Amino acid sequence: MGLSGICPHTRADPFFVGRKDEVIPTIQIRNLNIRHRKDLHPLVEDFQLTLCPGDKAVIVGEEGNGKSTLLKWIYDPAMIEPYAEAEGVRTDQGEKLGYLPQELSEADKEKTVYEFFSAGDGFWEQDPWERQQLLARLGLDGDVCFSQQLMGTLSGGEKVKLQMARLLMERCDVWLLDEPSNDVDADTLSWMEGLIRDFPGAVLFISHDETLIEATANRVILLEQLRGKRLTRWTVANVPFRQFMAEREAGFTKQAQLARSERREERIAMEKFRRIQQKVESQQNAISRQDPHGGRLLKKKMANVKAMERRYEREHEEMTEFPERELAILVKFHGEQAIPRGKTVLDLSLPALTRPDGEVLARNVSLIVRGPEKICLTGRNGAGKTTLLRLIRQELADRSDLTVCYMPQDYEELLELDSNPIDYLAPSGVKEEVTTVRTYLGSLRYTAQEMSHPIRELSGGQKAKLLLLRMSLSGANVLLLDEPTRNFSPLSGPEIRALLRSFPGAIISVSHDRKYLAEVADKVYTLSADGLSVQ
Questions:
Q1: In this model, does residue 251 exceed pLDDT 80?
Q2: φ and ψ of 273, to 5 deg
């Protein structure tokens, strides 16, 4: 597909980099191949991309398809060397790249906020007034850069905001953003949409927030793995995401209809051909040797039949193929997980909600959940939503009439990273249990090799699917979900939301995903210093 051309852009915003009226050069990627070191499984093959000024390109694809790996390689090929090997060419004109990782590194988690900021050149080059203005736009205190709090102790949204602030201070030409919308509150999401749209340079980003993608992306890069992940396919489309998805679905439908039509016509033609072939063969068997003239005619007829057969074989090879598409096959919840309507699942009343260190986050927090309600908690980053969900988990832990399953925001709270998916889901090692788990993992598009990989090597989306499958197998009738859609691709998102909406039990969740709030939640509560209020 053709790629958009270079056009000049100006920068009027002091938080954007470079001189006014400066044209940003282009990044080109040519002939890129990336494969896993362990099993040589390909992630991308012969990948080509040109990034131009004003491009807002989103990378989408199912979990484990190599989106984050591709982004890391573009920023610094050394980042993928521990687990993947790559060959390809990236050329630029000296652009300064800015990278936002999906998760903070362990080293950065151990830094104080001040150490994290002071590690970047931009922090020292930033004018103090300009820095305060930047932080205010993110809803952060002007002195937060000098905080001695450890980065690892911050909420997920606070971590993303601070990383974005440091990225803006670095004054980069190109942004590479891996899940910039993860865990941030509604106000920050709206701000981030405007930030990405207005940035005059190129932005290449991964996001599972369909609303953010629809509001910002003008190009779509789709990474797919087909035929049991033996075949990779990539697509670059210079259209907005919603248009891309609609045209893609229409293309699949048209191709499938054409393929069916051609095969229907082929069946009719082949039936006619077989009747002719059988008639000529029958005449050949019945003709007398005393009729040489008739024999020559039949020989000629048989030659025509053979020629017709070869023509049909060629036409069959040239027929339209049925479209190959990568489907997200997901787990199902069962009817026995239902909760009777009116049954009290939770009746919580707290004079004060406090952090482990004693800081009061909110007062007079009350929440009642009955029957199979789907409840969602929202609020600004740092308001205490995750703290409240953990407290609810403790509150329900001793209930013998409920089976509760918890999905944390940080998957490492529950996952055994050095274990593999099979051992994690079937720790007994009983053959029947292992076979069942393998079947379910296969339905979630895990390959045989991935089933034996350490969990720490899986993508965020694959880890999320693992926790989702664990919930399904547990028979839980109450789900406590902290940002449940944060690592599912926009392709999986609609199915995940439909799955949770159809869950027959109760769900108490924390989310800023606007489509999740609209499609799954029966009630949405906002947590503030004054407690919970219904939206």
A1: no
A2: -65, -45
